[in-house]
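DATA SHEET
Item: assembly model
Revision: 1
Owner: S.N.
Input lines:
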Amino acid sequence: MSTDFYNPSMFETNNARHKSPEEVAVSFVPPVDIFEVLSTKNNHILVGPRGSGKTTLLKMLTLKALCNWPQQGVDILPKTSFIGIFITADNGWQVQINDDPEEEYSIGYSAFTTHVLIAFVQALIDVRDTSSKNKEVLFGAPEELNADHEAQLVKIISEAWELSPSILSFDGIKLALRRRLIQLKDLKSLSKNEKKISEFLLKEAPYVTKHFKECISFGIEAFEAVTGHHGCTWAFLFDEFEIAPRRIQQDVLENMRGESDGRILFKVALAPYNETFIDTFSSHQSDPTHDYSVVPLWHFDKKTGAEFSEDLIMKLFQDEDIKVDTLRSALGSSVFDGDKDTDAYGPDGHITAILHNLYDIDPSFKSYADNNGLKDKLENWSDLPTAQKAAIRKIRSVSITRNLFLKSKTDTSGKVTTQKRSRKGETRHISYSGYSTIIELCEGNPRALINLFSPIARELKRMRQSNEKKHVPKEFQAEKIRYAANAFRSLLKTREYKSEADSPRSLLNLIDKIGEYFNDQCIGEAFHPEPKLSFSVPSNLSSNLTQTLARALNSGAIIYVPDATADPILNSLAGKRFRLNYLLAASYQLPILLNAEAPLSSILHRESRKTTNLSLFDEGAKKQ
Amino acid sequence: MSSDISVDLLIYTVGYETRASYVVKNILSKEHLALRHEQTDMFSYENNCSYSESEGHPMIRAHTDSEEKIYRKISESLKVLERKSDRANVIGLDISSMQKEIISCVISQLFKLSEKFEILLKIIYTTGQYKSPPEHSGVYTDFHPIKGLEGWTIYPENPLSVVLGLGYEPDQAVGVLEYFDPSGSWAFVPLGADDRFLADVKEANVSLWDFHLLKKESFLNYPVDQPGLLYSEIRGLVDVLRRKSRVIIIPAGPKIFSAIAILVALELGDEVSLWRASSHDHIEITDTLPTDKLVQFDYKFTVHQREI
């Protein structure tokens, strides 16, 4: 399908849903290790928030995408040796697939099954249209799927699926399946006054008893019998699987756990928090007999997403025909960076200068520094034992943050205290520009990276064409950061914060509360060498708060931080640790750190303290 | 009567807004059907009720009476009218103070009735005088398909397009984009006689513009007093989009956008669905006064007009 009328925007740029597999393949940057894992012959559950690349990854496992992936697809194809059946879903058609769990048979379930069968027929079309060379890779034989095969296969499948295609071709079956969807719609209207829906459906549409997996198993067997290509594996690639009817979710998830048809694999994409998954898997956590692997698509640690992020940004620059030696040369340095400079902590080092300045303006830091002999240690940096150097390095980010956002103030009695600087709009966001901070803000999330770096790539191209050799100005970067952060905050504002409070509240209210707490930890009156920058959820979490945190997690506002030994997939929120998305760091003037956790209850029950600069939008964002 | 508009049957709302009775007092109609809102005993509600009662207009409860009752009542009026005339029945629908759900319900019933009766629908409204948007706090949004206009796709693998009407609700449009994650989005921006209205709409949807959530070309302006232009714009856009995608229309803002979106969704078939975005908020209810301007839009229902 041609989609040339779609204009990319903030929401559309990296939405792989409307792109053909060939289009996805051309711009694909494989996340480090993840794609290799996904292309193996195993069941997988991809877990990630919005924009984490789930659709792209699943679409890349289809035959058409792999065969059109420049260079690398050819290498991956033999490893996959499976034929992907891509099944898309979105909130727009969830009404159509509403399933009534009380009924044995339902129109929604049957509509979803029909959709899966259409996807299977599309996979058969992909096989038919794949070149002989690639067919040989897949099946070990270059034999064509000719018109006779197709007609024979269509005849057999149609009979089993209770279809009557007018044309004996794959397109003919697709047409018959679409006709079935029309019939199901008519049945929906007709069944409104029926008391026994299942009985009504059995009478009017006996195919409602068909289970998608049985239908596909039969289809595979027919394919093998007709073509002689035996032993091929087929993979269901379920995108946005949480939208599928719950019964189908349970079926598939159960299937992944136990004995299953060896010719069929399941790779399903789920939001981080999914109740069906929890219900199905909660009693089987960490069971070594699991026949599936969980692939998390988020990075709780900023280092793990760095390589993929840099690859993706380089690809964006490459697409604009920009050659850069390093990303630092394109973006400039960040104020938070420079720890690796050999003389950063020496007598003339820039971090030493920051610490000295903070010492002068921040009585609380001065007290900490005096108690810990910080000045002496900095003077003798080169002779300092490693452990002591590490302790000073640990306070670097929070000290830089305080130095950026605090100024000294003398009250009427002559006492010197600190006051939060009124850094608004771009001024605040400039602090988060430059390499590598601006990259860390994106959390390794492809959509966030593309949204933030596409305009930067275009600006860099313009600069290079005008022979400007400098990096992209910090102000320009800051403006894009502000756009991205504020757009994200706008999204959070539209989601519900379920609580017992009388007045309606949005998810942003909760996130602000957490952000304000962290803000106070970092740039409050008292200097905390290790400010709390994550939170733990109590075991007795209310149902309202569970739902709200689940929303926050699935929208990417909070990030799950698993313990070293924990499963990356959540079976419950209770007792788990989370942090805020780094994209929100500028909104709350926080360093990009994963520090110790505070109990969520302490955060929520804390007296609201007025902090500066915490409005929905920064000044400059609003226009009359 | 201050206007020369005349209809066979006028369906109008008895509500609390002063403008609710403006149309009924200013156009000529042989028959009337009043849809009474309940629990809105404020502003001009008593006066509006008294007027309808004194004129002897049949009245039904807008929210609690069933769709079937609305269908039956309109049907009864049409039967009477049919006997008197051999031309199309002209039904006036005053949407000035009518809630979107009621507009949807009435138009859907008229659509059904158009299989039995020849109907010319006149959508009539008076534009409201400018008032500042209500104060919003702690808003969040949820989404539901409008009953009877849920749509039904036979191309579930197609991408999703969203067509939005913009209104006063802060960031509601952003919520729409977040919820549906569409592949393409278009926003209709209302233009009123008073420039402050546009400024308020932009303020409520600041992120769409300032953060470039939509491209410039995806904003489509429409004057609220030119419904014909709006109809051709929405219909034209949705007709193109539905050939390549599933289309969801989410009406917000002036009532005329909702009414026309409903007509377009009914007309263009199941690949088009209509959803409601509900903002949860504590909004102070305010009165709306009419301007002296009446706007009308004529729409001829034809049998089997709906495409399958």
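QC remark: Chain B has two domains: 6-129+287-301, 140-280.
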